[in-house]
Each structure stands twice: as structure tokens, then as C-alpha cells.
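Try it yourself: sequence plus adenosine-2'-5'-diphosphate, in.
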Amino acid sequence: MADQADFIAPPPAIVHVARVTEVRHYTDALFAFTCERPASLRFRSGEFMMIGLMNGPKPLLRAYSIASPAWDEALSFYSIKVPNGPLTSRLQHIQPGDEVLLGKKPTGTLVLDALTPGKRLFLVSTGTGVAPFASLIREPETYERYEEVILTHTCRTAAELVYGEEIVAAAKACDLVGEAAGAKLRHVTSLTRESHPLEGRITNLIENGALFAHLGAPAFDPASDRVMICGSSAVLHDMKAIAEARGFVEGANSEPASFVIERAFAG
Ligand code: A2P
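Structure, out:
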């Protein structure tokens, strides 16, 4: 029998070590990467999981939305480079062939099951908050459940929109969802610090009707619309107030309703 001292427990939060296959830098502060997906890792499109690196003898993990759909063989993530961030200051230097740590259990509320049936699905994102929607716009069930899918992405500058433009193009070119995305997916971008066809915070564009005028579509209606929101804490706070003022009710896995929110994690 092993002596007690011989028994070294594995780090509790870790189940997988995965090899990085691709890294792409978008701006000085934004990058995306893809790693191999362990065969046993299951998740629903839109969920997040813990990922990270070893930090000396200990794992350093942060929550990241999974940016690839549940059917994909690879796992993709989109990240900000937090100045002096304990994880991202190292993670931003990963290269193909390096190893990353993947946490135990994907989870989250930005999932189709947390919403009751509706006709239009609004995916409202700012900054890296577009990541879970990169997963959902390549999920066939999204298009089975909704007649229209409207992805909004608001950033400070045009360079920060590029990732979102690429994932929308990828969805439309995808063998599995390309036809449905071509027919049902609309992508609306706005900028707050550079000139752009649609300028301003998404909260203001909803309040003043500019978003709906731009779409040529009716304003939010809780009877037919469902809304998912992902961005900074401030964005979530303000968007939640707007949704609730219009009669939307926050849903959860256990109690689906008409809108759901999730913080865009960074660290
Ligand atoms: P702004 O430039 O006016 O701050 P960040 O890069 O800081 O994460 O921001 C992403 C986008 O979210 C920016 O366009 C930013 O606009 C916008 N934003 C920041 N705070 C809010 C808020 N409370 N409500 C709506 N949009 C916001």
C-alpha cells in the first residue's frame, strides 16, 4: 500500500492538456487561437470553460467562451491581451505546438436551451463578447429554432471588428450551416471611436431606434424576439435594464425565458 506521502493528487481543476494548432493576432490587444479538442470534452454551443497555463507548479486558469461550435473537432478561443494580466500576458505568446490546459466542465447561460421559442434571435456583443456567438452562428440548431438571427458587434475601432467579420464569413461558407446562415444571419457592426456607417454604443442604438432603422425591421418585441448579451459588466448592466424595461425576462438553463446574459471574461 502506498504511503500517504507518496500520494500526489492531480490538480483538481484540470482534466486535459491540449496542443495549440493555430494562433492569429488581430490587434495589439486581441488574438485568437485554436487547439486540439480532447475526444471526451462535451459542451453546448455558447458555453464557456476554464483554460490556462501552468504557473510554476500550479495551473493558472481563467474562464473563456468557446468560440467554436459543439460539432467542431477543434476548440477555438478569442482573447484580449490584458495589460499585466497574469494569464493573458503569457497566453498571448503561445505558438502552434505549445500546450494549454483545459478545465473540467464547460458551462454557461448563452445556450439555446435557456431561451423559450421565438422568431428573431438577437446576439448582442461588444469587444471579445462576440466569442460565444462565433460558436452559436455555426450551430445548426440556431437556424432550426429561429427565422432570423441578428448578430450585433460594437467595438471602439474598425480593426477590432475583423474577427467578427471573419467568423460571419466562415459561418456563411460552412458546409453544415452555410445555406441557413446565408438566408437568416445578419451582421450589424457599430463603432464608438471611429467613423462607421453605424456609430454609437449598442445601448444607445437600441434606445434611439437607429439599430432597427438600420435593419429595416421592427423594434424589440418580447413576444417574438429572444436576446443573448455578452460584453463587459457595464454593457451587461445597461443592456439588462433595457431588455427588462421592454418586458423581456431573464432566462436560465433551469428556467428558459426571453433573454440571457454572460460576461465577456478576461484575465
Ligand atoms: P465606448 O468607446 O463608448 O466606451 P471595450 O473595448 O472597453 O470593452 O468596449 C467595447 C465597446 O463597448 C466599446 O465600443 C464601448 O464604447 C462599448 N461600451 C462600453 N461601456 C458600455 C456600456 N455601458 N453600454 C454599452 N456599450 C458600452
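One thing you can check immediately is this: The two ends are 42 Å apart (CA to CA).
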